[in-house]
Specification:
The complex is a heterodimer of chains A (302) and B (313). Chain A is α/β, with parallel strands linked by helices and 302 residues long. In chain A, strands 2-1-3-4 form a four-stranded parallel sheet, sandwiched between helices. Chain A has a four-stranded parallel sheet with strand order 7-5-9-10. By secondary structure, chain B is mostly helical. Chain B is globular. Chain B starts with a helix and ends with a helix. Classes of the chains: A alpha/beta (302), B mainly alpha (313). At the A-B interface, helix 8 of A face helix 2, helix 6 and helix 7 of B.
């Protein structure tokens, strides 16, 4: 009996020894691996890897001169020209989570509500996100400053914001010449006709240019409307921001001849939609273009 | 007598709908200045009568032909073919008021030919072949629309509205004239469809019985398929794929007035037209925001349909 017990114990010890060796090997390889990955991640914390799923943020990153950190963007990110050459993770509303993860980002810029789904997935994977959804011109400027801080480009961001604020100030001063603000209708799609409401940041943008949105009483971001509603609201200026209709066609729309803007021939179809739709550094051009139109057609103080 | 009464009732409903829709709107109504009601509301009312009526009548004739209660004007693939055409027009065509309607109609025509060719087996058209070919083409074109939307890098909100159905197309004089031309072409087509009521009555009993009674079922299937496809192509080109009307209006009529196609087809036209005017009135009265038509047809039509179904059972 005893002999048997000893045999068994010996066996157990042998097995334990084997396990020790195995464990030692495991721990060793783990240490090596973690050392390698540590040194790797150390190198990476120095250089951030960012992905922008928002065309306006892509523009901000380029304007801050931090585009070397950009390792991915969407197929809509087409400005500046160099942004087209960056690795594409998908389109605006349906970026591929796998393509994002593959680029090992340290920070992903997203916007709500369009990208809620991808935000949830990124949070599950513990990838940090920066959510942008500016509602006013001021919040765009704050956002540029915040992105500057995040990307270690505060100085550039501050000077950029300062120059935009200076230009806004100039426009504000020229607005003092106006007797009042013209009522402007801004069309963003042709069939059905769509415009923007009070919740859109474009509404605020128009205000800076000295114009009033004819649909500013409606607390929504986008509004699908119709001819009669617009005739009732009777705008002084019509801005067409989509390619489906040109000035001449808008003038010919049935019943529209009663609208003030059509009567006085104040329809404009040659503005760059990207200036309006992207709350990035180029929004100031939208305000300047719109302000130029307002200044050229609206009544001034004597 | 009963026949006459039912016509009058639905005609009265249509006239009531037209008057209500003509008088109501954000700019109000005054007899001294009729420009807005005439220029803005009237084209929309005519479009609603045309679309609702055609969908109702085509739905009735197709359900009769296929003896299938689930068939609607879009079963034969016309709507998805038209939306595919519209996407192509939107992406590659010249920009203009005609682009979307013309390309949508071409898409509808193309689908019609493809479905017809697919359904043609040994020189014979079978009804099951037509339905299957239509469903397959629907899937194919819906897939291609999605593919183009993803590849085009453009958010095609317009196409989504086309797929959902809309009546707030903005008319210019040229567009209105082309719509009138379509209207004039459609009227003989509708009468032709109506002239098939006797054959459809026989056909809805049994195909073999119909053949033994001297109905050329091949010819009937072919002519009804082509006429309905053309008509639905016109509707989709201008108003998009408005749902519910083509499926449920014929059922409602049949539940109330019986299955005789002599009654079902014209009454479906009248009810479809009035229903679409009413839904459009609601769609534009929740102003200043327009609701998609299909949302309202579903919200108001489905409970009514359920009520009729329960009463009948």
């Amino acid at each position: 009996m005893q002999r048997l017990k000893i045999k068994q114990q010996n066996k157990l010890i042998k097995i334990k020894n084997k396990f020790y060796i195995f464990h030692c090997l495991l721990i060793f390889t783990y240490c090596v691996l973690s050392f390698v990955s540590c040194s790797k991640s150390n190198r990476e914390t120095k250089a951030q890897r960012i992905i922008s799923l928002v065309p306006s943020v892509t523009e901000i990153i380029y304007a801050l001169g931090q585009d070397s950190l950009l390792v991915g963007n969407t197929i809509y990110c087409d400005y500046p020209e160099a942004a087209k050459g960056v690795y594409k993770v998908g389109d605006f509303s349906n970026p591929s989570i796998e393509r994002i993860v593959k680029r090992k980002p340290t920070l992903v810029f997203v916007t709500l509500p369009e990208q809620q789904k991808i935000v949830n997935e990124l949070k599950k994977l513990k990838i940090p996100v920066f959510i942008t959804h500016p509602k006013t011109v001021d919040s765009v400027l704050v956002e540029i400053e915040n992105i500057g801080k995040l990307l270690n480009a505060s100085a550039t961001a501050d000077s950029l914001v300062k120059s935009i604020r200076r230009r806004l100030e100039q426009i504000a001063q020229s607005n003092y010449n106006l007797l009042d603000s013209p009522r402007v209708y801004l069309e963003i799609a042709g069939t059905p006709i769509m415009t923007i409401g009070a919740r859109s940041y474009i509404n605020d943008l128009m205000r800076y240019a000295g114009a009033r949105n004819v649909f500013s009483d409606i607390d929504r971001e986008y509004i699908v409307t119709n001819s009669e509603e617009l005739i009732e609201r009777n705008p002084d200026i019509i801005i067409i921001l989509h390619p489906q209709a040109k000035k001449e066609q808008v003038r010919k729309r049935l019943g529209w001849s009663q609208i003030n803007a059509v009567k006085k021939n104040r329809i404009y179809d040659d503005l760059n939609p990207d200036y309006f739709f992207r709350p990035g550094p180029r929004f100031i051009y939208a305000i300047e273009d719109l302000s130029r139109i307002v200044q050229s057609v609206w009544v001034r103080k004597k | 007598m009963a026949k006459l009464k039912s016509y009058y009732l639905l005609l009265l409903l249509l006239v009531f709908a037209i008057i209500l829709s003509f008088g109501l709107g954000p700019t109000g109504f005054s007899l001294s200045d009729l420009t807005i009601p005439l220029q803005v509301r009237l084209p929309r009312i005519i479009l609603a009568i045309f679309s609702g009526g055609v969908l109702g009548m085509v739905g009735a004739s197709l359900q009769g032909l296929f003896q299938n209660p689930l068939v609607d004007p879009y079963t034969l693939g016309i709507a998805s073919g038209a939306s595919f055409g519209a996407v192509i027009g939107y992406l590659f065509g010249q920009i203009g008021v005609y682009t979307v309607p013309i390309f949508a109609f071409m898409g509808a025509l193309m689908t019609m030919f493809l479905v017809y060719k697919l359904a043609l087996v040994r020189e014979r058209i079978t009804k099951i072949g037509l339905v299957l070919a239509g469903v397959i083409m629907s899937f194919l074109f819906a897939g291609m629309v999605m593919l183009l939307m993803v590849l085009s890098h453009k958010p095609l909100s317009e196409i989504i509205y086309l797929l959902m159905g809309r009546l707030n197309i903005i008319f210019t004089n040229e567009l209105l004239i082309s719509f009138m031309v379509v209207l004039i072409i459609s009227i003989p087509l509708l009468f032709y469809l109506f002239s098939k009521w006797r054959a459809l009555n026989v056909m809805s009993m049994n195909e073999e019985v119909a053949e033994s009674l001297g109905v050329d079922t091949q010819k009937l299937t072919r002519s009804i398929f082509i006429t309905s496809s053309l008509l639905v192509g016109f509707v989709v080109a201008f108003s998009g794929a408005i749902s519910f009307i083509g499926l449920c209006v014929p059922h409602i009529i049949r539940m109330i007035y019986g299955p005789d196609h002599y009654k079902v087809m014209p009454l479906s036209f009248l009810l479809g037209a009035s229903l679409l005017i009413f839904t459009d009135l609601i769609a534009r009265s929740i102003a200043p925001i327009e609701l998609p038509i299909s949302v309202i047809t579903a919200l108001f039509g489905v409970p009514f349909f359920i009520y009729l179904l329960k009463k009948k059972l």
